Amino acid sequence: MKIAVVGLGAVGGLMAAKLARAGHAVSALARGATLASVREHGVRLTMAGAQTASAITASDDAKALGPQDLVIVALKGQSLAAAAQTMQPLLGPNTLVMPAMNGVPWWFLQTASASAGLGDRSLPSIDPDGRVKALLPLERVLGCVVHLTCSSPAPGVIRHGFGDRLIVGEPGGGASPRADAVCAALAQAGFKSESSADIRHDIWFKLWGNMTMNPVSALTGAATDHILDDPLVHAFILRTMEEAAQIGARIGCPITQSGEERMALTRQLGGFKTSMLQDAEAGRAIELNALVAAVHEIGMRLSVPMPNIGALLGLTRLMARERGLYPPAA
Asked: Which domain holds residue 119?
């Protein structure tokens, strides 16, 4: 399969390296230090104590890479609109686009049931002017949920943490040969890939589990174990998760697990710094919109009471604005 990765950070780099090692024709759209590193050394991956380097074709010009079978988009949400335009030369008549990103994707409400009562299906918090929807239409898209951890300590250098599960599915639900084909390619590369008949539910379930830890850690500077050990913060997170579960139930994504059960799983992972805390400490823009603002936007549209989600969004947004990590108020 001819595969291009847009965004050679931790997740994108991991996927590029493993797919290339499995024999797929992998290329990447990159720039700056990452482009220079990958051209000279390949994508360097440390996994299970072993170090490998996978040679791929990398360029800062999508025209040089040409049309692909699959484009994997592994960017922060705030970079998506610009990248959607830049990647157009990668898209042939049958090219699939699969975002491997956190939070609510731009297409999420387009396939929600009419019975949800959403009215407008746009998501201005994710796609303010509808540019992404226009450039990456729904018929090209496969949904994806990433259940693994990895980091990129230097440009083009990837360290795998734990997990290797990837869920793939059609935005509108159901099975499809193209989703199965992508799953097969990912499995060939060593991922535990599975095809989902309800990828929207899988997306919401992951979001329900991580939409609180990320911003709370960025606000407090605390690792996950310290967050869970604080009884007041623990209770706040549970209330926030309950509000998100109520929104999910309204849009066809019911949550059957309890908040306590989900936090017990987080505790089993040990104490760690979330990706949002790492971004904040490094002075990088935080990915707040896809994780929290979109949930708040959907809840507002459905008139779901959500004082805790609102507080979480407002506090994190203000902190980030004061530190230059989030766009200023219009």
From this structure: 2-197
pLDDT score, position 73: 98
Q: Does any domain span residue 328? A: no
In angstroms, the CA 164 to CA 148 distance is 5
Residues contacting residue 137 through CB under 8 Å, at least 6 positions apart: none
> Rounded to two decimals, what is the model's pTM?
0.95
DSSP H helical ranges for 22-162: 32-41, 62-65, 80-86, 131-135
Where among 197, 215, 239 does a domain terminate?
A: 197
Coil, strand, or helix at residue 129? coil
Question: Distance of alpha carbon 45 from its chain centroid, rounded?
Answer: 20
323 touches 291 (CB < 8 A)? no
- Examine the domain organization and report whether 30 and 158 are in the same domain: yes
Q: Residue 288 and residue 126: Cα distance in Å, rounded?
A: 10
- Whether 176 and 211 map to the same domain: the answer is no
Residues 180 and 270 in one domain: no
Which residue, of 181, 197, 213, is where some domain finishes? 197
- Just list the catalytic residues: 206
Give the model's pLDDT for residue 120: 80
Q: Hey, is 221 helix, strand or coil?
A: coil
**How far is residue 107 from each of residues 1, 170, 326, measured CA to CA in Å?**
25, 11, 23
Q: Are residues 192 and 209 in the same domain?
A: no
Distance between CA atoms of residues 318 and 327, nearest Å: 10
Residue 330: its pLDDT value, please?
Answer: 74
pLDDT recorded at residue 118: 83
Please tell me whether residues 223 and 241 are part of one structural domain. Answer: yes
pLDDT means per 10 residues, the chain with 330 residues, are: 97 98 98 97 95 97 98 94 97 98 96 80 94 97 95 95 95 96 98 97 96 97 96 98 98 96 91 90 95 97 97 98 93
| Whole-number Å distance between alpha carbons of 90 and 95 | 8
CATH number at residue 237: 1.10.1040.10
